[in-house]
Model the fold of this input.
Amino acid sequence: MFEILEKERIGPGVNRAVISAPEIARAHKPGQFIILRTHEQGERIPLTVADKDAEKGTITLVWQEVGVTTYFMGTMCVGDRLQDLCGPLGKPTHVDKIGTVVGIGGGIGVAPLFPITKGMHDAGNHVITIVGARTEGLLIMTEDMRKVSDELLIATDDGSFGIHGFVTQVLQSLIDKGTKIDLCVAIGPVPMMRAVVNVTKAAKLPTVVSLNPIMVDGTGMCGACRVEVGGKTMFGCVDGPEFDGHEVDFDLLMKRLAMYKGSELIALNQFRESPRGCQCTFPGGA
Amino acid sequence: MTEQVKPAKKPKVPRQKMPEQSAVERAHNFYEVALGYDNDLALLEASRCLHCKKPVCMAGCPVEVDIPDFVEMVKKGDYIGAAWKVKEKNSLPRIAGRVCPQESQCEAKCVLGKKGEPCAIGRLERFVADYAAVHGEGKMPELPKPTGLRVGVVGSGPAGLTLAGALIKKGVAVTVFEALHELGGVLVYGIPEFRLPKAIVRSEVDELRRMGVEFKTNWVIGRIETVDDLLEKRKYDAVFIGSGAGAPLFLRIPGENLNGVYSANEFLTRANLMKAYLFPENDTPIAKGRRVVVFGGGNVAMDSARSALRLGAEEVTIVYRRTMEELPARSEEVHHAVEEGIKFQLLTAPLNIIGNDAGWAVGIHCQKMTLGEPDASGRRRPVPTEEYFDIECDTVIVAIGNAANPLVPSTTKALETNKWGNIVADLESGKTSKDRVWAGGDIVTGAATVILAMGAGRKAGLSMLSTFGIS
Ligand SMILES: Cc1cc2nc3c(=O)[nH]c(=O)nc-3n(C[C@H](O)[C@H](O)[C@H](O)COP(=O)(O)OP(=O)(O)OC[C@H]3O[C@@H](n4cnc5c(N)ncnc54)[C@H](O)[C@@H]3O)c2cc1C
Ligand SMILES: Cc1cc2nc3c(=O)[nH]c(=O)nc-3n(C[C@H](O)[C@H](O)[C@H](O)COP(=O)(O)OP(=O)(O)OC[C@H]3O[C@@H](n4cnc5c(N)ncnc54)[C@H](O)[C@@H]3O)c2cc1C
Ligand code: SF4
Ligand code: SF4
Ligand code: FES
Done:
């Protein structure tokens, strides 16, 4: 089970893998995620299901290497297996025909935005997608996004590709042009989501964000994933991961994400000194 | 350690202590605290039992283990026979013998307790079950021919496992669906290794597997499929819901979302299930606090405090609103905690958690309480005073209880729940308001005990069998 069928590097430190998981592929809806464990001593980490093929029984994961688990997964190859894969988890996105939807994806956030965009597009909405990255080389999945968007706007912070500037500036100019927008969906690094929400709050545009708090079980059992929304404590894994962006306490989320900084560094350094797992030189691998 | 006792006349033999790791040693490791009786100690302890005609002890056991008879077999040295005797009523005796609150159940009723100390029934139960596991391997009950009936079980805690055992022995096929990657429920993610070694839970699960029970882990009912799907798409003849009381309660006081503040579930899950005490060999981190404060006074609070100590905390303090007398934890656990150096800050209520600029907990602001009139539960009610003070700390563990996880009830059609979100089920049969659906354990009663969950699994199993027309 959970065999890696395809694996490629799609950007610096960013990987994409297609994994055999027939039951999850069948049950999954846009906005939902999985929790995986690579091996017996591994940590449980959540990743969004970036795409799926119910017929082939596969799901696609896209991840950025930031710590011990995601680096380790970067070294895994086609034919390797994940020890555990649990999902789908979290509430699905509320997909409906509402009119014009603007999706805003920053960095790795483009991956979780993809299935939502696809869902919104399939539901008959006019979909405008804004994807952004620091520089051209860090842009991911733009061709996938193009297929499910009516309009695709690309921005880089350094102007190396597309519009020179931040996604928020692109969004602001859409608003300034008088584009009728019914819903914004923003997924990306916390500072980016916060910046988007500041823009949409001023313009009174309903905005959904997808939060990435630290999780353990993903079923509402531990409370590690606590976030504050509208002054109330919610569990990211079962009440979310999507929330009303205008109500989210981003400051708290940032602080909680830094809770294990020290330990994460220790684990990563140890991993770098003695890497484990598949060290083969298969072209699809590392 | 072991008391030296000369075999004396029956009533003169004192209750035999169980050898254990010394407090100094065990406070820094995760090995089991209590080491169990050897044959000699077991014989001595068994010799104290009067084999009463009217065994009142049995009335104290929720599953009515045949105590006098199994103890009698111990006296004769037939330990394996004794284990089978226990297993007639209690399919997980290695577990119950370790975690049952015996002092308020079977042992509370034992006649020897009237004048002196009760017979150590739990310790004997543990002894025979461990003995049989080591010496009596390979003996498997003969299984009847499959009946063709199939039952789906939600949750692999003691309720679900007991039900699975009861059904498979009658030729009913059972599949257990478990949300986590390990089987056993609270037995693996909550109760720590030093009280209940995970290898024991695994061996009990393996026995069920050998008998043919199928297990599906990483399988969250309500997400990947619903109870209705199990009945309609997978065509199970019946479904049992034993999903436990897994949703952690918080005090809802300011500062509870600061870094360093854990629910007991999270702290224990990181420590036990994810083995964070082996970090960085194991990848899951945990805040190894220097000064740890635990809110609450039950088993969960004791387990959290003692785990924090073993992870390396310099000082661990339990903050509880009442006094030592009212602590709801098993007395043995309180006793062990005190021996290990856990501090108790009694008659104290936390008002808020104090944080620093980086968002970390640095202390708690408390109010002194005093005891007032007894409340509905008969315990004296804590009443606030005008005295306030702060306790410095870097880690806070909230262990004030668990509520029902709404995931299964909320995704199941026409399943009645009460105002606390627990599933409404008949306590004798486990039948719910929904056709072909039974439920039992903490999801029905609210957070209770292992043996009650096992009892509920057993009763629901019997009820299902009689519905199927199998005796
Ligand atoms: C619902 C959800 C969906 C996500 N989807 C994606 C995705 O599609 N692609 C992707 O690249 N990342 C995604 N993430 C983030 C991803 O889970 C973390 O990057 C990953 O856990 C890091 O693990 P690590 O061991 O490699 O790094 P670590 O060294 O453990 O941590 C590095 C960073 O990851 C965060 N983190 C650590 N452990 C967890 C955890 N258990 N849960 C959440 N965050 C954690 C920490 O805050 C830290 O900033 C998602 C997170 C959530 C909650
Ligand atoms: C830290 C701690 C210490 C304790 N100490 C003691 C003690 O010393 N003595 C004692 O008698 N009792 C003790 N208890 C209480 C005892 O553990 C519980 O009463 C008992 O485990 C309840 O059993 P259960 O089968 O109802 O549920 P649980 O043991 O809670 O098991 C439920 C299982 O269902 C799974 N599940 C939940 N939702 C889903 C879903 N949607 N799909 C699939 N699976 C799902 C869960 O993951 C879990 O594995 C303690 C509890 C805790 C938390
Ligand atoms: S199962 Fe528990 S209550 Fe019953 S005899 Fe054994 S220890 Fe006592
Ligand atoms: S009541 Fe006590 S002495 Fe009597 S049979 Fe039970 S355990 Fe033995
Ligand atoms: S991850 Fe444990 S409750 Fe959300």
User: Anything to note?
Assistant: The first helix of chain B runs from residue 23 to 26. The pocket of flavin-adenine dinucleotide (ligand 1) is lined by residues A 33, 43, 45-48, 62-64, 66-70, 108, 111-112, 212-215, 241, 257, 264, 268 (CB under 6 Å). The interface with chain A takes residues 179-181, 189, 217-220, 223-225, 246-248, 250, 252, 256-257, 259-260, 262-263, 265-266, 269-270, 274-275, 278-287, 358-359, 405-407 of chain B (CB under 8 Å). The first strand of chain B starts at residue 150 and ends at 154.
